[in-house]
Amino acid sequence: MSDTTGGKGLAGIASIARCAREASRELALLSDETRTSALLAIADALEENSERILTANAEDCGAAEKLLSRGGMTPALFSRLLIKETGIGEMAARLREVAKLPDPLGKRLAATELDDGLILHKESCPLGVIAVVFESRPDVVPQVASLALKSGNAVLLKGGAEAANSNESIVTVWRERLRRFPDVPQESIQLVQSRSDVTELLGLRGEVDLLIPRGSKEFVAYMEENSRVPVLGHGEGVCHVFVDRLADLHKAVSVTLDSKVQYPAACNSVETLLVHKDIAAEFLPRVVAELERANVEVRGCPRVQALFPEAKVVSATEKDWSTEYSDLILSVKVVDSFGHGLEHIRQYGSKHTECIVTEDQAVAERFLREVDAAGVFHNASTRFADGYRYGLGAEVGISNGKLHARGPMGIEGLTTYKYKLRGNGHIVAEYSGGIRQFKHKPLG
Amino acid sequence: MSDTTGGKGLAGIASIARCAREASRELALLSDETRTSALLAIADALEENSERILTANAEDCGAAEKLLSRGGMTPALFSRLLIKETGIGEMAARLREVAKLPDPLGKRLAATELDDGLILHKESCPLGVIAVVFESRPDVVPQVASLALKSGNAVLLKGGAEAANSNESIVTVWRERLRRFPDVPQESIQLVQSRSDVTELLGLRGEVDLLIPRGSKEFVAYMEENSRVPVLGHGEGVCHVFVDRLADLHKAVSVTLDSKVQYPAACNSVETLLVHKDIAAEFLPRVVAELERANVEVRGCPRVQALFPEAKVVSATEKDWSTEYSDLILSVKVVDSFGHGLEHIRQYGSKHTECIVTEDQAVAERFLREVDAAGVFHNASTRFADGYRYGLGAEVGISNGKLHARGPMGIEGLTTYKYKLRGNGHIVAEYSGGIRQFKHKPLG
User: Fold this and answer.
1) Which of A372, A378, A398, A430 to mutate to test the interface with B (most CBs of B within 10 A)?
2) Pick from B114, B373, B417: which is nearest to A391 by CB?
3) pTM of this structure
4) How many angstroms separate the CA atoms of A131 and A146, rounded?
5) C-alpha span between B33 and B149 (Å, rounded)
6) Which domains are present in chain B?
7) A244-A245-A248-A252 Cα dihedral, nearest 10 degrees
8) What is the mean pLDDT, run by run of 10 residues, along chain B of 444 residues?
9) From CA A211, how far away is CA A203, in angstroms rounded?
10) Which residue, among A115, A382, A426, would best test binding to B if mutated, counting the most B CBs under 10 Å from its CB?
11) What is the DSSP code string of B313-335?
12) CA proximity to B43, closest of B179, B185, B177, B187
């Protein structure tokens, strides 16, 4: 393990973070060309070393299978652990996508002539040191690490014990290839292995600039409540599809099914279907039939149940409306109006992604404007809420918070900015004293 | 007081926050024209009611004078409490500046064609409900409230007891004038008066979107550590002026003096002067003479003291290097090189604002690039680090953090964004299944 943690062996996480801080200073000065070339070279390295990575993953999966058979691991977690043979190629392809993104650093976000010879520039720069805590999925490693490197940030990765060999093999390959780039410090990517490190990590304010927990709702909430380091929690997804009275029923069925079935464990899958009363009798039999064909358990409000007298729809309880099932279960509710639909979303939604299906453009625009969520969709599956699908290259997480980054968070979320002011001996006293006046002229 | 807290009298802060949330929904739908007209009308109202506000302020100042004479208040706090006769006009002028800023809402931050008929827009929108906790200065009320209204946010204001009458008179005038704008809810601005409310405020996660504490370092730290609501703390300022070996001495003296003397209580005033050893013998006698003329106490490292054999320079202790004096005191250190200067800033700076004085352009650019702070200045006083001077209209605070907003935080810091996705029944399964490919074409 020493090889992937800065050669420091049993070094504590505070000292690992300090190495990362030093590395981040070097990273911030690299050209985009160097960062891009390194990423492309690492993509090649992953493919060249695919057997090594798959062997390490097989070890993890072997141990996990035993756990699984004893009930010590959920099938969902197990399926996320496995790297398929095509998985390495996909990781490499994603890395190349991130590599070719425009340089996120040194972007001029604003330029103002405050006065003659006094010019203010607002310019993007890296955050510094990012820490990501995640479980199972080893493909999080290249995804997060590539976004970090492209944006000039050092990254600390704390994966789950179940994926220890997989994660270590990927990071080892990554660091080995970095040796070809003497300007890129190997300490720019470091694995953190022990569980006790997480507690220590939460206290490293000033050492770590941003902590991104990816995991269960309870896990993310624990991190948010106990961290002194700024946290952007990967969001809980209680997402809705609202089928308006003027919906195209074919689109409504298709979008509902895709939103639920395409990958039910994802945070952007739908949990509650809201149906306008005027269209309920026509739409619900069609969509419920399709949902059942896809093995989705439907839990309905009394008005939904009334449409299915043979009682094949389970009764939805109050708790259902705020539950992220992450499973083939869907709660369904009939609402009296557009306004009631909005009210339900306001009360139970997690501000992640909300969708309306309608052919009424005016109603669609109202929905997109009035619903307070990171993603507001018209006639499109909630499953599109994803950094790769949005064209961000990849994502370090999806934020339900409104500060800094909202929704899928790519390289831009890993940058901040600084104000550069260039003068010629300018002092404030002359402006306060009325000798000089600010121009505040925006520059192109 | 009932008039300024949503007519709810003794209502708890949770219910005040809920009123603010409802108001924020209406605010988010207002046109820029309405928000701007309301602000201009309020600016007039403040001027028309200046006597009323000055009378209220005189009451607060009368009570404060008694406290002051008993040592129950610092002179600095007292001076911030007083509204000068010209103060109302200045408040109104600032309001008009904020009113005429470009609309911060509905800005298209990005537009991408994900595929035929599937268009993604990233658009700015208000945060929702902002809470600001501050002490003394009643001019914070119009400054913060104007930025909030311009950016479509509801605001909860918790001022200090010492300014209760002043704050209430301003908010009352504000709300009275809002009656002329039936679309703008009066609950968009609410005063919170009791001290116990602050504790409750810290727990209103989900009800309040952003909490901005303005006050002492200890106060801000307390809020940051105890709040479940996201906090952007008004930053501590341990700012440096670094006088390089190739500095123009006239500029160096002038920038140092302005940075220290122009308003020493401000967070953007300088606390430590770093001087390159090659220029120390020539520069220090000049600057120290000027500083003493301005009643600044100089605390020097041994090399500084050695230059003043008559021992008029006090010895700086380790504690001095990390102290924000907020007073007419300046610590001074001679450093061996540019690198040593950077190292000192890295160790002791608060990432607020850092300045270099030099005629060497290459050295200046290195400084602006390598120093990690919200503001990095070349040949300009640290006192320019201010929302109004930056052309942001005003500021709700200055953030030393790197997330969301950095440095002086104006209307942009009070906005977030949402992703609007418009499709025509698009589903993810077709992309995962390889039937369709993403285009990810940036739109102009």
Assistant:
1) A372
2) B114
3) 0.90
4) 13
5) 12
6) 2-103+125-235+401-415 (3.40.605.10), 239-384 (3.40.309.10)
7) 40
8) 44 88 95 98 98 96 91 82 91 94 95 96 96 89 96 95 95 97 96 83 92 86 87 86 98 98 93 98 97 96 92 91 94 98 96 97 96 96 95 87 90 94 96 92 89
9) 11
10) A426
11) SEEPPGGGGG----SSEEEEEEE
12) B177
Dist CA B408 CA B394 (whole Å): 9
H or E element, residue B290: helix B277-293
- Write out the two tokens for B396: 């709700």
Does the beta carbon of A210 lie under 8 angstroms from any beta carbon of chain B? yes
Q: At what angle do helices A164-178 and A50-69 cross, to 10 degrees?
A: 160
Whether residue B372 lies within 8 A of chain A, CB to CB, comes out as yes
Looking at the partner chain, which of B369, B377, B421 has a beta carbon nearest the beta carbon of A384?
B421
Residues 20-79 of chain A whose Cβ lies under 8 A from any Cβ of chain B:
25, 28-29
Which residue type is seen at A5? Answer: T
Give the gap in angstroms from C-alpha B422 to the nearest C-alpha of chain A. Answer: 5
> d(Cα B281, Cα B303) in Å, to the nearest integer?
10
Q: What residue in A sits closest to B211 (Cα-Cα)?
A: A403
Q: What is the crossing angle of helices A87-99 and A32-48, to 10°?
A: 170
Burial A188-216 (b: 16+ CB within 10 A, else e): bbbbbbeeebbeebbebeebbbbbbbbbe
Q: Using CA atoms of A280, A285, A291, A296 in order, give the dihedral in degrees to the nearest 10.
A: 80
- What confidence score (pLDDT) does residue A225 get? 84
Q: Can you tell me the ipTM of this complex?
A: 0.91
DSSP for A150-172 reads HTT-EEEEE--GGGHHHHHHHHH
Distance CA A91, CA A44 (A): 10
Q: What is the mean pLDDT of chain A?
A: 92
Contact B110, B121 (CB under 8 A): yes
Residue A254 has, within 13 A of its CA and on its CB side, a CA count of 16
Q: Nearest CA to CA, how far is A69 from chain B (Å)?
A: 30
Amino acid at B144: V
DSSP code, position B312: -
| Cross-strand partners of A375 | A353, B419
Structure tokens, A347: 């009360």
Q: Which residues is B231 bridged to in the sheet?
A: B211
Residue whose C-alpha is closest to residue B256's, from A243, A164, A429: A429
Answer for the pair B296, B261: CB distance below 8 angstroms, yes or no.
yes
C-alpha atoms less than 13 angstroms from C-alpha of A63 in its C-beta half-sphere: 13
Other Cβ atoms less than 10 A from the Cβ of B142: the count is: 25
Confirm if A403 and B404 have CB atoms less than 8 A apart: yes
Task: For helices A140-150 and A87-99, give the axis angle rounded to 10 degrees.
Answer: 10
What tokens were used for A140? 């999080």
| B225 touches A at CB < 8 Å | yes
The encoded tokens of residue B417 equal: 């964004």
Work out how many CB contacts closer than 8 A connect A with B: 219
- d(C-alpha A174, C-alpha A182), whole Å: 14
pLDDT at position A1 is 38
Alpha helices in B49-195 (DSSP H): 50-69, 75-81, 87-99, 140-150, 164-178
- Strand, helix or coil for residue B79: helix
Note whether A168 and A6 are within 8 A (CB).
no
Interface test with B, best of A226, A384, A414, A430 (most B CBs within 10 A): A384
CA distance B383 to chain A (A): 6
Q: Among B114, B232, B407, whose Cβ lies nearest the Cβ of A389?
A: B114
